[in-house]
Amino acid sequence: MDQTSAQGPGPRPVRLSGQLAVGGLLLAGLAWVVRAVWEIRLARAGEPASGPPDQGDGVHRPLDGLENSYHLVTSLGGGAAFLCALLFLSWLWRLRDNARALSGLEPRYSGFWVYLGWIFPVVNLWIPRGIVVDAFETGSPGRRLPVSVNVWWGLWIVGLLSGVGIVYRDSTDEIIARAYTEVWPLLASDAAVIGAAVAGAFAVHAVTRAQTERTRSGTTGADPV
Q1: Which residues, in sequence order, are CB contacts of 213 under 8 Å at separation 6+?
Q2: Does the residue 223 lie in any domain?
Q3: Cα separations (Å) of 23 from 81, 118, 164, 209, 210?
Q4: CB 107 within 8 Å of CB 135
Q5: Residues 29, 194: contact at Cβ < 8 Å?
Q6: Beta partners for residue 164, in sequence order
Q7: pLDDT tens digits, the chain, 225 residues: what are they?
Q8: Domain range holding 89?
Q9: Contact 102, 219 (CB under 8 A)
Q10: 3-state DSSP: the chain helix, strand, coil percent, rounded to 5?
Q11: 3 in any annotated domain
Q12: Where are the alpha helices (H) located in 49-123, listed in sequence order?
């Protein structure tokens, strides 16, 4: 009887889950490219004579066509980000479970951190990366952590702390007003999110490949996907 049989269920196929997560990340990155293009269009058009959309004291003027289309772009981008999150979390959960099956070691972080680690202030600066690193190191011992993991996380933090990245604090109308007056910080934040999405796709691919190779060499069964 091999080690994984003695421990319980063996690792499950992770390649398809990784491919879906890569697709979700690239889709989110593309959504932020489109968003950046619209912000450039807003900056070039300039603020209308009637002023910003949110005029204070609960007063909002009617939006023009470009501003309305930016609302649509941000809504579609939010949908792409939500889909990306679902696919990424599904991959991360399977990656973590497989690392436990391959190593026989309990994960460093409890299961609820796979979800809550992204939203709790302060700890969201390191726990999600820690879950990926822990799964990689226990599931693929002796292998160097892919550089793309650190690049992905560094760019994600920049986008997170900027306040206008994936998780932004301003309303869409407030972001439109900023595009009229200070578009470069918005574009810098967009670039960080796009870079994080691309680096994240490389990271997911590299980590998935390493675990798939370990599954094939370290268990009696192969990853059939």
Answers
A1: 140
A2: no
A3: 11, 20, 23, 15, 19
A4: yes
A5: yes
A6: 168
A7: 344 444 456 788 899 999 999 999 999 999 999 999 999 999 999 999 988 898 887 788 899 999 999 999 999 999 999 999 999 999 999 999 999 988 888 999 988 999 999 988 889 899 999 999 999 998 888 889 999 999 999 999 988 887 665 556 678 998 999 999 989 999 999 999 999 999 999 999 999 999 998 888 765 333 433
A8: 12-50+61-218
A9: yes
A10: 70, 0, 30
A11: no
A12: 65-103, 113-116
- The structure tokens listed for 104 are 């026989």
Residue 129 is assigned to a structural domain of this protein: yes
Residue 2, pLDDT score: 42
Phi–psi pair at 61, nearest 5 degrees: -80, 160
Q: Residue 225 corresponds to which amino acid?
A: V
Residue that the structure tokens 């023009």 belong to: 64
How many domains is the chain partitioned into structurally?
Answer: 1
From residue 22, give the alpha-carbon distance in Å to each of 1, 18, 29, 143. 35, 6, 11, 21
pLDDT for the residue 160: 83
Q: What gap in Å lies between CA 33 and CA 108, rounded to an integer?
A: 36
Is the residue at 56 inside a domain? no
Query: For residues 91 and 204, what is the distance between their CA atoms, to the nearest angstrom?
Result: 9
Rounded-to-integer distance, Cα 217 and Cα 209, Å? 12
What's the gap between Cα 13 and its chain centre?
A: 22
